[in-house]
Amino acid sequence: MxxxxxxxxxxFRQEIQAFLSTxxxxxxxxxxxxxxxxxxxxxxxxxxxxxxxxxxxxxGGEQPADVLKAQIIAQEFRRAGxxxxxLGVGTQxxxxxxxxxxxxxxxxxxVRKTIEGEYRWCQGYSEPNSGSDLASLRTRGELVGDExxxxxxxVWTSYARDANYMFALVRTEPEAPKHAGLSxxxxxxxxxGIDIRPLKQINGGTEFNEVFLENVRTPASWIVGPRGGGWxxxxxxxxxxxxxxxxxxxSDALFASLLGLARRVQxxxxxxxxxxxxxxxxxxxxxxxxVQRYSNYIQLTRESRGQSAxxxxxxxxxxxxxxxxxVAQTSLDLVQNDALLTGxxxxxxxxxxxxxxxxxxxxxxxxxxxxxxxxxxxxxRGLGLPRDxxxxxxxxx
Amino acid sequence: MxxxxxxxxxxFRQEIQAFLSTxxxxxxxxxxxxxxxxxxxxxxxxxxxxxxxxxxxxxGGEQPADVLKAQIIAQEFRRAGxxxxxLGVGTQxxxxxxxxxxxxxxxxxxVRKTIEGEYRWCQGYSEPNSGSDLASLRTRGELVGDExxxxxxxVWTSYARDANYMFALVRTEPEAPKHAGLSxxxxxxxxxGIDIRPLKQINGGTEFNEVFLENVRTPASWIVGPRGGGWxxxxxxxxxxxxxxxxxxxSDALFASLLGLARRVQxxxxxxxxxxxxxxxxxxxxxxxxVQRYSNYIQLTRESRGQSAxxxxxxxxxxxxxxxxxVAQTSLDLVQNDALLTGxxxxxxxxxxxxxxxxxxxxxxxxxxxxxxxxxxxxxRGLGLPRDxxxxxxxxx
Amino acid sequence: xxxxxxxxxxxxxxxxxxxxxxxxxxPAVLATFEAQSPPALQYWSGLMELGVGGLTIPExxxxxxxxxxxxxxxxxxxGRFVMPGPLIEHAMAAYAISLGGTEAQQAxxxxxxxxxxxxxxxxxxEGQEGWMPGDWHMPCDDTLNGAKHYVPxxxxxxxxxxxxxxxxxxxxxxxxxxxELTALPSLDGSRRLYQVTFNATPxxxxxxxxxxxxxxxxxxxxxxxxxxxxxxxRCIEMSVEYxxxxxxxGQQIGKFQAVKHQLADLAVEVEPAAGLYWYAAxxxxxxxxxxxxxxxxxxxxHLTDVYTAASRRMIELHGGIGYTWExxxxxxxxxxxxxHNYLGRPSLHRARYASMAGW
Amino acid sequence: xxxxxxxxxxxxxxxxxxxxxxxxxxPAVLATFEAQSPPALQYWSGLMELGVGGLTIPExxxxxxxxxxxxxxxxxxxGRFVMPGPLIEHAMAAYAISLGGTEAQQAxxxxxxxxxxxxxxxxxxEGQEGWMPGDWHMPCDDTLNGAKHYVPxxxxxxxxxxxxxxxxxxxxxxxxxxxELTALPSLDGSRRLYQVTFNATPxxxxxxxxxxxxxxxxxxxxxxxxxxxxxxxRCIEMSVEYxxxxxxxGQQIGKFQAVKHQLADLAVEVEPAAGLYWYAAxxxxxxxxxxxxxxxxxxxxHLTDVYTAASRRMIELHGGIGYTWExxxxxxxxxxxxxHNYLGRPSLHRARYASMAGW
Lengths: 397, 397, 359, 359
Hints:
The complex is a heterotetramer, with two copies of chain A (about 400 residues) and two copies of chain C (about 350 residues). Chain A has about 400 residues and is of the alpha+beta class. Chain A has eleven helices and ten strands. Chain C has three domains: about 5-115, Butyryl-Coa Dehydrogenase, subunit A, domain 1, CATH 1.10.540.10; about 120-210, Butyryl-CoA Dehydrogenase, subunit A, domain 2; about 210-355, Butyryl-CoA Dehydrogenase, subunit A, domain 3. Chain C is about 55% helix and about 15% strand. In chain C, the strands form three sheets. Chain C has a four-stranded mixed beta sheet with strand order 1-3-4-7, with helices on one face. Chain C has a three-stranded antiparallel beta sheet with strand order 2-6-5, with no helix packed on it. A two-stranded antiparallel sheet of chain C has the order 8-9. Chain C starts with 6 loop residues before the first helix and ends with a helix. Chains A, B: Belongs to the acyl-CoA dehydrogenase family.
């Protein structure tokens, strides 16, 4: 057992640090011009620090998989405040899918422009009547001549207003059984018939949107995988969706803030952190946090050896949501009066910022597979309990 | 709203107190002779204080239903340490069933001797493969001449070794659908073919037994209700099974002991009860206890008016189990080192007595309908969620 | 033994519910969040017409002279509808004048508080926590100087009852000299909060308030508990309703055993807990003040904890739609947070309970 | 970055499991509860033949000189089988002599502790709580006087390492003058407890133990955490197994979504938590003692809480049969309670963690 990095990896870290100190000299709070960012990304990609899983000929960094190097890059880039890969479903979901299931011309056409940030994608999966149950999607696509004509409605589409393209699951084979009737289509959003409406969230944010599609058209060839194979293509993404390191960082930061809150807030004339009930509660949370940390290390270790992290991997999301709920409950007790407030434009945000976490922790047990669906998956695929058609896992049964 | 009893009921209380001071003059710790107890019970029954729901001609007290009078009787008898009704499934389950579903000769033959304690009953429902799912019972009864011949095995039979009779659900109509094949039979245990084996429990107690029946015989007429009607007959008992007052008393006593424990036990050189985490936890439990108390009052009030207590009634058992689990968790934290011990013959019992509650609280979420079955009942019958054949409620679907 | 609401109390709840069912729809409450001006007024007149303002005000001052339980039952119903406006604070202020004012003060203000012509609120905490009388530090001079925080619906109030050092209380009238209101960004937009600053502001002391300051706080605790019970119960009903309608994987989601059990677990927490606020309200009028205070603290702590759990569960159960502004499930969540921390977090009141219980 | 057990550690776990699978069946462990004489011996020789006794004892004294993690991995496996006997206490005693004894003492005792020819236990608390070195009050004189409580498997022990005032430690040998053992009725009958009384009993001081007394306790905390993890994991496996076999209402109970979710919720608590004890064990050998103590406290607190929850859930899930003595599910429940409160309840160690974290 060794929690340090190998000499090889430490050398790699120094290499990165040298690269960054030469090529990214902005202060933490500086706002560099978009061109500077673009140029830096390109350089870092050429060095093989970004888009490591994407071949060079599509504009990627093309490096052998090494989760430890990936972690070192993430750590050092963050420390330097340097731009990382463009975030979003385009780079994180579409690109890996195209690399795995796309045709050559599709990769050439879409990958480079996506990782350079020119094509910005949104995901068209969920529909109003298909939240957990994606197999029941109803948005229809009909092949008319050499074009798909698409009609329907998508929902929970993050950042659709910033996107110029969508990848979507569309029912193209209405006669086929549920899962077999879906195709994975790419759609240009810059056309008539597309109507994007922001969905206001309970915390006042509007990252989500409804997208209405009325006689929207896309070329017949803009299909990834075979007709009716969209479900399978969309599932191939699952292994690319994870970003454990980021989630552990968030938990660490969350806990550190909570501890700070408990130090700042007074209870009975002393910092709340001196109250034995608060100490017990925070130490309990610390236990959960360390569990996440070491589980993360175990997964990194196994993946870096090409082994499967098995059940552990299936537990990450639920662990994470549970932690968020526990933090929410604790913070409500600690913020006292400021829980009655919310952020307002132009007003300095105090402890009421915790109310965003209080609400946001609910989103995390809904988005990306509800906690109940997670439990089905854990029980059936993880623990091997007998499957039951009436116990959905978001999976074709 | 009035938490006091009416003048009529207070007069009744005085009447009871007068009766008790005249007729039960034993000290709290005295051990009166069985004859004295029997004579007292008979007198109290003639006065209409015991067996109030049983007609005089079967030896009962025969009084109009009045839950408040029943509560007053229970309170005053307990305060005086006077004998109450004979406890057990005979008086609490069989007698009401016979009164509701039995034939006249059955009532005459069995009721009086049961309430006088001469006939001691055990219940033959559960079987090894039918815990929650009673409809799948397999013990068979065949009518041979004018006798039922019974073969099979019952389990979880409380106090079977003290009983001389059993009432049992027996499959007499093997061709009929699951629930329709059961009959409710009365069986004399004093015959060959009965083999009673104690089941040792996790806390070392042996109240439960297995009862093996091999060619056991009972007269053809010792059937309550029609052939194949046993399921329905057994369900008619449900409304007699409750004893809310007793359960609230138990919760009160449990909480008072826990508080005493927290006062006695030292933590950081002071009574644990001075620790803010312990205070918070106990106040939280006090909330649950008061919820039970007032829910109990509401139910008493409604029942005394002939109204239904509806959903509240369905929640009692789960509330009670949940409270037991919370107490168990809290006591484990409080008893500290004594949690490592258990009671031993001849040794004065200290704080380790809590380990009995710690284990017993598990029994309460298993016995008499598991907590999961309770949740199904609450959701379907209480909240009106759609029934599902795959969500058992212990009820014929 | 009679532990239940009376037929009259239930009938009154029904008439309030009938009114709010039309007037206080989810879109209407959502609109109050977005309105520039304070939102309370629209429900105020309706409720006052129904007589709510005077329920617990003595008959000689134009009220009905009823008990706190009668009012609490109404607040339960208002809580079901997450009704906007300072119903609870108005009642606390009226109690302060009833119990702490001179006869002249009572005669001057109570009739108009009963009819709803005057609206009142209370200004208690000066910063963090500090809701209970022992925590009030504003000096009690001829005029008031200092600031009070988290004052609900102050802009709309004709009278503000202010907590002062030593547990004293005084009344400040709308537009008084040196009175300044700053709107705070309120999480529960249907209960708008203000910072209230006093600068040599004239105020009228309620001479007997000092002896009953805790009782006035207890009124608030009991009514918050009632609001929480009503809200939590409604959360279950809405969840059940949604679970019966929403179809996923070819069946109503209410058929999934996991959903059933989550709702059953919620029912067991919420449903039997009404008695906590009933008893606390009843004790206010019929028991020694210390016993009533204890019951009020426990009811507030327990029921507002239950409410936050219930509202969170409701949102989760609704899935993505539950997280949308439009659906309005968040109204209950935000009210639950208000009830939870306004007048002090549950753990504070559990600690008070423990002390009052002599632990 | 390499955070996992090694292939060697796993292989060793497997060989222990193979042995215990035959030797340490549920009926065998149940029999130890009922046996008149202490039950540890039957597994002792088997484990010692496999080399467990000497894992962490230095090579020059006949051990393997491995790290605490190597031993903890074995204890995890023993925990899976609720193995009777003082494995943990034996290890604590051996560490006390390794770290605190003179070279002569080491040479005298360690080889026999490594081979298992000698068995050892530890005597720490003197009444309520009082497990950590600062709580030991027995005077450290030429001979020992006083009593220690809750001493596991003392009757079977050749050496008892006793905690003394000022965090000192001394060794008492079997049959020493004035040494008296009284059996206590132990909830976990596979770890029998004794009250040990000393009456002018000769003892040999471990001169350097005072500096490392906390480290010796940390060994115990880490190993209890490992035992708890192994036990909790086994509870899930047995529950899953039963849920796959038991049929009610015409289907395996593991098909019911409620059962699925209860087990999934358990898995999320148990499965990822192994790293807590791994890290604590690793830190013992590779980090500053204060950092290692902190990790040990957290691992013990967290994992033993998880274990009690898992064992209770397992019994509930088994229904009536789970409540029977014969099935043996209670063995895990009782071990969970032992692990939970032996060496101090979780809330105590969370409070210690909070202090060590500088909160």
